[in-house]
Amino acid sequence: MTTALDFAKLSGLEALRAMFALPEPPPNIGSFLGMGVERLEEGEVVFTLPTRPEYANPLGTLHGGICATLLDSVMACAVHSTLPPATGYGTLELKVNYVRAVRADGGLLTATGTTIHVGRSTATAEGRVVDAAGKLVAHATTTCMIYR
Questions:
Q1: DSSP string, the chain
Q2: Which end of the chain has less Cβ packing within 10 Å, N or C?
Q3: With contact defined as beta carbons under 8 Å apart, do 142 and 118 qualify?
Q4: Which pLDDT does position 1 carry in this prediction?
Q5: Hey, where are the domains in the chain?
Q6: pTM for the whole structure
């Protein structure tokens, strides 16, 4: 299974697992930033991301957009993991709270996304990012539109 048409035949969880199992997954923001997939379950996903100096803001700490992208990814994929075949989704709203600055020095971030509610036309999810010491770095909520 390597085409969008093939993936459309699978449930959201099956499609995510199949995509990430490919030797070369299709281009996506996660591969561009270097995200790793740790867990894919129905309603919950966990990704990791090593920070890099290129991800720094002008103050030398991790740019907030990196955490926001990581959170958007895990929360949206948590929603995706609950959907039936041939069902799409998109982020309607993203709210991120930054708790502490992160050094852009190769430290590993771990993000967990969990669904709160999956309805017919919208879904909500929450996410948390922790650093290598397990300290909370950022947390977020999202609302996704479901395209049936």
A1: --SHHHHTTS-HHHHHHHHHHSSSPPP-HHHHHT-EEEEEETTEEEEEEE--GGGB-TTSBB-HHHHHHHHHHHHHHHHHTTPPTT-EEEEEEEEEEE-S--B-SSPEEEEEEEEEEE-SSEEEEEEEEE-TT--EEEEEEEEEEEE-
A2: C
A3: no
A4: 47
A5: 4-147
A6: 0.94
